[in-house]
Design goal:
alpha+beta; seven-stranded mixed β-sheet; 12 helices; 7 strands; 45% helix; DUF169 domain-containing protein; DUF169
């Protein structure tokens, strides 16, 4: 997929087939902080908040000066990790862990970018793309993300899809940096920070994948949309079971 028109078309198709409540987001990790045409600086936003803005139609950039989350600032190589997070004391203070050693271990295991390797992060709705993204990040209900993971698995010959998470930094590390570094799809269940700071709903999660996977994913989503997806959502097997239980002699239970 090499043209902007194809990128936009893929974004529209993914949104329509799955019924996403927002747009898939294109992400570019840029080496410099030169102005990006059409983008506004996400002043005082966390990365997850900038991602939310892009999902709802905005074109924004995140820089080391504007990013509000210290954990994400380190993950993208903008700033060193603050001492309270590095030692785990901060996570104890937030009530996330009960022991500092556990918090420290969680951050030790994070996949992060080299300091100074990224100048800024460009985020935009995929269906309004003006540039080819490095990554695509999708946040929505877990059932909808399931179909993306299935399509990715189909593109890789049925190989199982691996997921890696610390249940921290779900949007910045799990769904952006790991897919960028390891060149594969990764998913997370959300985290304390993004659920507190954005409109991510209780039943939603997030995943990301390299943009070169987009054509094959969308092609199989179209295949799934022809039969498997609507059939599964129709819950035909469940309806048959409920009908059988309701008609069984002496049964008064409801499923």
């Amino acid at each position: 997929m090499t043209t902007i028109e194809e990128i936009r078309s893929a974004g529209i198709a993914m949104k329509d087939i799955l019924g996403l409540r927002g747009s898939p987001v294109g992400v570019r990790l840029l080496k410099t902080d030169a102005p990006v045409p059409g983008a506004v600086r996400a002043e005082g936003n966390r990365y997850c908040q900038a991602l939310m803005r892009a999902r709802h139609g905005e074109h924004v950039v995140v820089t080391g000066e504007t990013i509000a989350c210290p954990a994400a600032a380190r993950a993208f190589g903008f700033k060193p990790l603050p001492e309270p997070l590095r030692t785990g004391k901060g996570l104890v203070g937030f009530g996330i862990t009960a022991e500092e050693a556990v918090g420290a271990k969680m951050f030790e295991g994070m996949t992060v970018l080299e300091m100074g390797s990224v100048g800024q992060i460009d985020l935009f709705p995929l269906d309004l793309a003006e540039e080819i993204p490095d990554l695509v990040v999708v946040e929505d209900e877990t059932e909808k993300l399931m179909w993306i993971a299935l399509s990715y698995m189909h593109a890789h010959g049925g190989e199982r899809v691996r997921g890696s998470t610390a249940v921290l930094q779900a949007t910045c590390v799990d769904s952006t940096i790991i897919p960028y570094v390891e060149r594969r799809l990764n998913y997370g269940l959300g985290c304390y920070g993004c659920r507190d700071a954005t409109d991510m709903a209780a039943g939603e999660a997030v995943l990301g994948f390299p943009a070169e996977e987009l054509p094959a994913i969308v092609a199989h989503l179209k295949h799934l949309g022809g039969r498997a997806l609507p059939h599964s959502r129709g819950k035909h097997a469940y309806a048959a079971l409920a009908k059988e239980r309701k008609s069984a002699p002496g049964s008064c239970s409801e499923l």
